[in-house]
Amino acid sequence: MSKDTDVLIIGSGFGASVAALRYSEKGRSVLVLERGGRISRDRFEADDDMLWQPENGRYGMNDFRKRGRHIVPWLGAGVGGGSHVYAGTLKRRDFFDDFPSSITIDEMQPYYEMAEKMMGGMKYPDYPPYNQLPSYKIFRMAEQKLASEYPSDVESQGNILLGISFAPPGRQPGASFINQHGAAQKYSDPDEQKILGGEIDVKNTLDKNYLFLAEKNGAKIYEFKEVYKIQRLSDGGYKVHWKDPRENSKDQGNFTCHTLICGAGTIGSTELLMKSKFVHHTLPDLSDQLGKKYSSNGDYVTFLIPKKGLASSWIGLIIFIVGLFMLNWWIIGLGALAYVVGWIISDKKHLPDVGTTNSDYIRFKHRDGSTQGMYIEGGRYPTPIKAVVAIVMSLTGQFKPYKYGKINKVVNLLGKYVPIVELLERTWPIPLLMMGRDDAVGEFDLDKNNEVEVHFPFEKNDDYVAFLEKWGRKFSKAAKSYFVPNHIAKILKIVEVPHNIGGCTMGENIENGVVDSYGKVYGYENFYILDGSILPCSLGPNPALTILAFAERSMSKI
After folding, report:
1. How many other β-carbons are positioned within 10 Å of the β-carbon of residue 445?
2. What value does the mean pLDDT take over residues 134-154?
3. What secondary structure does DSSP assign to 333-377, as a single string?
4. 540 — alpha (psi -120 to 50), left (phi > 0) or beta?
């Protein structure tokens, strides 16, 4: 029977994009269905519209929704999927002993190389202006010091390979250029806050490489097509049912195909397959392992605050305020003196809002002495004063990503001459982004609305979190900073997870996996899953490059 397309791909993230390109290169008709829209610098605003909340009429690229008691996944929505919200980090895994036996590190190397080349991977620059940013310099100093002090625990440290375009020496940050694939991009400008749109066209997102080339080959990408049911046809093909998230009606259309690729991400693919099996009963033969082996990849956030002069200034400010209430000039003068002393001896402000998240890393052995046990990387975020200004500008339609540089200059100028602004700008913490091979393994379930939630045994990570915090304290000490634990995670037992893994994991057979090592779904012909849901355990490093490499491996086999 004729079908709408040879190959239908659900989602447009890392694995899905590889499939779109490789099938289109072979002349197959390819149709990609993406729940979100195209991401553009021109349309970006730093208000609620940057969030994915269809029920509230918001269709941005950042999807934050609590899934169960403990887990808040950070997902991407838009053409290019998670490549718009990840930090651009491209790290390899060095071993696969805990994967199905057919996978070896030697086999994976060429696929890692293919993915790195396609993504335009380059090390974070060691030349100005990139290597002059204060937070970067603080982290590099601490990484080098820890590597020297603990050589038996620290495996490596340095600048990370990133799928981000940095201006070569002599070129202007922020300038436009044409990348190796022919797509228009911009060079990274350190003054543009990345979460507030500064990464758009700077990050080598999938719409600038894999998907860009797939479309040149004739692949079609349909926006705002959210698949909610997969149906196997009597002749062996598949029908997928989709709805437009901007509309209220349930069933708005369907497409048929000979070959089906599911690449909607760990949360999306697992939810879709579970609904198809347990709610619609259209994929009844899926493995009983569906929904098992969820992992957070050990994602955890703590913070550090450079301490030099900070305590003196805060104590001085408090004494100064007390003196004002008491109308005592001696106390007022003492407080002002303590504040000024702290101001004078403090280092240059660390500016945790500018620069590149994960510009550098330090890697530790596992608690059992094996490799790739845990990483610490530096985070960036829009500090509150500047973020509020950006959001207020957005509400009047005045904010664009390039304007953050102007906001940055104005607030920094106030921080030079207005004491309370100066002190606040010195106090904002720098995130310590941690990840590794943790102990807790969760499971998925469908809630009353047929959306997946994660049952995660948070307490089983107690030893792992203690391990993270031990090295977080040592790292903060090396950085001459205060260490700030993650009190929200400790008290509320909630973690935000950008590196969700599992749910449709690979296994040797249908008894211990949903797919084989190439992503082929057990029990169904011409049906593959290519995303983080097929990874069977915590990787340790950021998973994006490994997902790409596995997809390249699968497509090579297919």
Report:
1. 15
2. 97
3. HHHHHHHHHHHHHS-S---TTSS-TTSEEEEE--TTS-S--EEEE
4. left
How far is residue 443's CA from residue 548's CA, in Å, rounded to a whole number?
A: 24
Burial 155-191 (b: 16+ CB within 10 A, else e): bebbbbbbbbbbbeeeeebbeeeeeeeebebbbbbbb
* CA atoms of 448 and 224, how far apart (whole Å): 24
State which amino acid sits at residue 110.
Answer: P
Are 277 and 260 within 8 A, CB to CB?
A: no
Percent of all residues in the chain with a pLDDT value above 90, rounded to a whole number: 93
Within 220-370, where are the H helices?
265-274, 310-326, 329-345
The dihedral over CA atoms of 258, 261, 264, 268, expressed in degrees to the nearest 10, equals 70
Which residues neighbour 471 within 8 Å (Cβ) at sequence distance 6 or greater?
Answer: 364, 374, 376
pLDDT of the residue at 493: 92
| Chain segment 294-321, per-residue pLDDT in tens | 999 999 999 999 999 999 999 999 999 9
Per the DSSP assignment, residues forming a β-bridge with 162 are 89, 122
b/e code 393-429 from CB counts within 10 Å (16+ = b): bbeeeebbbebbbebbeebbeebeeebebbbbbbebb
User: What's the residue count for the chain?
Assistant: 558
Q: Read off the pLDDT of residues 358-411 as tens digits, 9 standing for 90 and up.
A: 999 999 999 999 999 999 999 999 999 999 999 999 988 889 999 999 999 999
